[in-house]
């Protein structure tokens, strides 16, 4: 899966298809507000704002947001402005919240970022930073599938038609020389669109032979006897690809750049802390997961899931561009104009202040 050239042609999304509608996960409580942030008494408000509303998923692929919330990194950076949080189950609802002004900044997967941007004709959001790479695996029933070639003829789940993992799996199928109708999922492989929350039960019942899914669903399947047949990271240059990035509404970015910069500063600091304190960070993420979803992950699921995800400040823009092109090749999307989807100005300002190298927008930045 080499990184491809930037897609800059005319937007034309297939109207009948709710393309790229789910982010890379399906856990967490829908728009569950959490007002527990503690504002330092007497601290100055940033941009005069009473609060900044941050959205994310209750999922380990959103580790930066989980840990940043739990350990207070966002609140510290925002000073007298309260950090408020809302958790989501799926990309469309978070994009809708961003568009309606219910949240200002969000952690979200690449597919809903593309969809939100293209559906608004490039007017709704910007990607302003990276958050995580990796954490996606093809897990199979080892009694039914012994090798990659055995996937042909089997029933393999993805989270939803057109979501990040669905596109990746369809692209992988095509690279094997196999044929599948993208919309129906029928062909040399049967692609079963199954919500991440129910996939483990479907696998356990025997109705699935495997699944191409993000963490922690992949590790839940392994805990049920599944075998990791393929880690998607091995298909990408340097084994890195975007699984979670940070978006902001263009209106909020324009009106409150200092607040956006503060959140990005906290994100970079959180990622550094996670890397320096992996075990403590894992515990903090799980504690926040329990608060957000009502249930912590057991060690047999959390430990391998945590190891497979890399927190990262770089949004890995070239890989998002590749993911969009894979959707085009699968017949799910006509080539979109993604120019301007990124604005990494504030992130690079934060990185420069910390002596870190700038990150690249792969030619898809604001001109």
Give a quick precis of the structure.
The chain has 367 residues and is an alpha/beta fold. The chain is 36% helix and 18% strand. The chain has 13 helices and 12 strands.
Helices and strands, with pairings:
Elements: E1 32-34, E2 51-57, H1 63-70, H2 73-78, E3 82-88, H3 91-100, E4 105-108, H4 110-119, E5 125-134, E6 136-140, E7 155-158, H5 164-175, E8 190-193, H6 199-205, E9 210-214, H7 217-223, E10 227-231, E11 242-249, H8 250-255, H9 257-276, H10 278-293, H11 299-307, E12 309-311, H12 317-329, H13 345-353
Parallel strand pairs: 2-3, 2-4, 7-8, 7-9
Antiparallel strand pairs: 1-3, 4-11, 5-11, 5-12, 6-9, 6-10
What this model shows, in words?
It is a single chain. This protein has 367 residues and is an alpha/beta fold. It is 36% helix and 18% strand. The chain contains 13 helices and 12 strands. The chain has a 7-stranded mixed sheet, with helices on both faces. A 5-stranded mixed sheet has the order 8-7-9-6-10, with helices on both faces. β7, α5 and β8 form a beta-alpha-beta unit. α1 crosses α9, α5 packs across α12 and α9 packs across α13. The two termini are 27 Å apart. The N terminus is likely disordered.
